[in-house]
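Try this one yourself first.
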């Protein structure tokens, strides 16, 4: 079930989950390429960033006015321990199908082709599946 957000003020979290921000953190050893994919390709905003913090660099990306963030980190000196799996996905829901087409074209032009998803459900439901430089999948899905 997908909950649609109709304005820029998301509903409050339930009383038993008092968190105010939700962030997914993922490591990479292709930091600049991954940030470019999500920033320039998908158009996410850079919310915050840091350099050389206890051996890490990072960028937080997100949607305007929503407390959900994707943090991309790199450990200086390598060892990103990247374990991509074709079922690990970030799914972006769109009400405007032309936005999906535009973003898909941008990512294709950047060298990221549209591929079939491992899970056939996405392929059967008009979703667009593309992998970033670490081969982590994103889905652009029309509501």
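Now uncover the answer:
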């Amino acid at each position: 079930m997908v909950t649609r957000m109709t304005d820029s003020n998301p509903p409050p979290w339930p009383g038993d989950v008092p968190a105010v921000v939700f962030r997914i953190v993922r490591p990479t050893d292709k930091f600049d390429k991954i940030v470019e994919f999500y920033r320039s390709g998908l158009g996410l905003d850079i919310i915050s960033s840091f350099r050389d913090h206890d051996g890490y660099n990072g960028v937080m990306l997100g949607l305007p006015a929503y407390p959900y963030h994707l943090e991309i980190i790199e450990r200086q000196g390598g060892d990103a321990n990247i374990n991509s799996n074709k079922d690990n996905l970030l799914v972006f829901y769109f009400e405007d199908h032309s936005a999906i087409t535009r973003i898909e074209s941008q990512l294709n032009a950047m060298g990221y082709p549209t591929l079939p998803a491992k899970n056939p459900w996405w392929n059967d439901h008009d979703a667009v599946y593309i992998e970033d430089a670490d081969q982590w999948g994103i889905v652009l899905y029309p509501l």
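Discussion: The chain has a mean pLDDT of 86. The helical segments are 31-41, 97-109, 120-124.
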